[in-house]
Design brief:
6-stranded mixed β-sheet; about 30% strand
Length: about 140
């Protein structure tokens, strides 16, 4: 470990250094990265039936200056309310919110095969491991 290592939040004065180290990840255009102007947001949506919560979804948005993207962190519907379109409605709301912020790609991790099929039926495609993605076209 370096003897004078410091970890701190980035500032605008760090832009050149950030672009230099990002060249390892993005050799085709690290100089176009707008860091450290990072935007991150999260939103929780619920579905109710007669006032009772029957489903919820958590979406996060990340934009660090290259390609904004979203992630569905959680999406679950009460077992007695499944099959009624509630999950699809929650997913659609997440995609609308994320798209409104500028996310062109949405990721989700689905370890359960039934969940993976649900996302595939909504237009998501498998990429690697448990991950699926949806891209606006």
């Amino acid at each position: 470990m370096p003897t004078h290592l410091a970890i701190r939040p980035a500032t605008t004065t760090d832009r050149a250094g950030i672009q230099r180290v990002l060249a390892a990840l993005h050799p085709d255009g690290a100089d176009s990265v707008t860091l450290p102007a990072v935007r991150q947001q999260a939103e929780t949506f619920i579905a109710t039936n007669d006032g009772a919560v029957v489903g919820m979804a958590v979406a996060t948005f990340t934009d660090y200056g290259r390609e904004p993207y979203g992630t569905i962190e959680e999406l679950v519907v009460d077992a007695t309310s499944r099959g009624l379109g509630i999950g699809t409605s929650l997913l659609d709301q997440c995609r609308r919110w994320l798209g409104g912020l500028g996310a062109g790609v949405v990721f989700v991790s689905a370890i359960d095969e039934d969940a993976a099929r649900f996302y595939e039926s909504a237009g998501f495609e498998r990429c690697t491991g448990p991950w699926l993605f949806w891209a606006s076209r």
